[in-house]
């Protein structure tokens, strides 16, 4: 397909994206990618369409592929792709990966220039911290055993013993 038709297809995808027709938009962007796999813009747009429709793994994959298109990657487009990669990870519950990528790939000034990205980083750090705490707290105590007694038996014995102390 000639470049002018690919560009028209991209514009049609942009129109579908603005209208909220994410499935058609992502299909159009994928066609653009198959015609010009070295253009980071198509991956970025596909990533946004997938993010908007809740296909976070596909959004992540498209953004990562776009970041590998170094010849067509402007600084602004690189920032967009890093943010889309991070959002896809955030929505998959991979908060630690999200914050790590933002901090590794964006400079402090880039983070400060974009308040929504700073909020994403802060939210990812908070969620990651909460996720670690809940994981540590949810280690199943019912699996605990001491000298051959399981947790329930230990609790029964302890309650009986404590009750006898205060009778």
Notable characteristics:
77% helix; mainly alpha; 167 residues; two-stranded antiparallel ribbon; elongated
pLDDT < 50 stretches: none
The SSE string, one letter per element, is HHHHHHHHEEH
Q: What value does the average pLDDT take?
A: 87
Beta-strand segment tally: 2
Proportion of beta-strand residues: under 5%
Q: C-alpha Rg, in Å?
A: 25 Å
Distance between the termini: 89 Å
Oligomer: single chain
Helix content: over 70%
What is the approximate shape? elongated
The helix-and-strand class reads mainly alpha
Strand order of the largest sheet: 1-2
Q: Can you count the helices?
A: 9
For the biggest sheet, the summary is: 2 strands, antiparallel
Q: Brief description of this entry?
A:
This protein is mostly helical. The chain has 9 helices and 2 strands; from the N terminus they run ααααααααββα.
Structure overview:
By secondary structure, this protein is mostly helical. The protein is built from nine helices and two strands; from the N terminus they run H-H-H-H-H-H-H-H-E-E-H. A hairpin with a 2-residue loop joins strand 1 (145-146) and strand 2 (149-150). The relative contact order is 0.07.
């Amino acid at each position: 397909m000639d470049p002018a038709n690919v560009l028209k297809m991209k514009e049609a995808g942009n129109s579908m994206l603005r209208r909220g027709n994410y499935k058609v938009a992502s299909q159009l962007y994928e066609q653009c990618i198959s015609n010009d796999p070295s253009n980071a813009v198509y991956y970025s747009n596909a990533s946004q369409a997938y993010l908007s429709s809740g296909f976070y793994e596909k959004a992540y994959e498209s953004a990562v592929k776009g970041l590998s298109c170094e010849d067509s990657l402007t600084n602004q487009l690189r920032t967009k792709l890093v943010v889309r990669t991070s959002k896809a990870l955030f929505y998959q519950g991979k908060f630690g990966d999200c914050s790590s990528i933002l901090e590794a790939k964006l400079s402090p000034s880039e983070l400060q220039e974009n308040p929504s990205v700073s909020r994403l980083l802060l939210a990812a750090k908070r969620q990651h911290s909460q996720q670690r705490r809940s994981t540590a707290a949810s280690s199943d105590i019912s699996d605990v055993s001491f000298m051959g007694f399981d947790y329930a038996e230990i609790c029964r014995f302890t309650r009986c013993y404590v009750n006898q102390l205060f009778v």
